[in-house]
Amino acid sequence: xxxxxxxxxxxxxxxxxxxxxxxxxxxxxxxxxxxxxxxxxxxxxxxxxxxxxxxxxxxxxxxxxxxxxxxxxxxxxxxxxxxxxxxxxxxxxxxxxxxxxxxxxxxxxxxxxxxxxxxxxxxxxxxxxxxxxxxxxxxxxxxxxxxxxxxxxxxxxxxxxxxxxxxxxxxxxxxxxxxxxxxxxxxxxxxxxxxxxxxxxxxxxxxxxxxxxxxxxxxxxxxxxxxxxxxxxxxxxxxxxxxxxxxxxxxxxxxxxxxxxxxxxxxxxxxxxxxxxxxxxxxxxxxxx
Length: 289
Known about the structure:
Blueprint: E1 10-12, H1 18-27, H2 34-43, E2 45-50, E3 56-65, E4 69-77, H3 86-96, E5 103-107, H4 113-118, E6 122-132, E7 148-151, H5 157-168, H6 173-182, E8 185-190, E9 196-204, E10 208-215, H7 219-230, E11 236-242, H8 248-253, E12 258-261, E13 264-268, E14 280-282
Parallel strand pairs: 4-5, 10-11
Antiparallel strand pairs: 1-2, 2-3, 3-4, 5-13, 6-11, 6-12, 6-13, 7-8, 8-9, 9-10, 10-14
């Protein structure tokens, strides 16, 4: 292993580093693919550290959502380069790129949680990670008023951006428009008066079709969006549900999902996340919140 200076050797990564980022993520069992990393690069900044052979050995990314909020993710250090301060240096670099008034969020792994606490992050919420190998459509027998779910069109995007802003507490328009272009499927839930009450996206990764973000006014509408995104998909599914909706995971479990983890959402520069309207049912992905 070569000598590395955690502060001197930090680089801002680009599309030419995508293959190195994929290899780095695979080293810890994560399944980042090229389209996902392009979305991260288009929406934020990825920092990295390389050894003298040019191999990427550590990374961290920050995605700003206006001045209100930013999200940190892709925090990875090769096992043989751990305990050298690389992860801490990269996170501190990410933190310095935003205003001290900007709330920074991240979703912590068990291994990373002590470091984040050392840097001043506090637990503010949790997400429920649910996986599904074989999807079963829900039973709608007890539903009086079915939800009208239709494919998202370009005309819906302004309403979708506003729904997302209210549900996340920040302006994610730059990220969201990139994410919509990346999406395998995108749907909106239409209210009786024709306005858009919710929306959902699905993103195909190397292993799972990830469902999210999903914004909805209630469990029933959220489940209708999940069904539109998941029904007929032959492969594995993943959804990360905001813990503020404790009645929703049991509905997903009836469709074949299994709750496999409940990692904490941690924040810096505030004891809590920005004010939200309670309509965020599933996050876009753990890196994006």
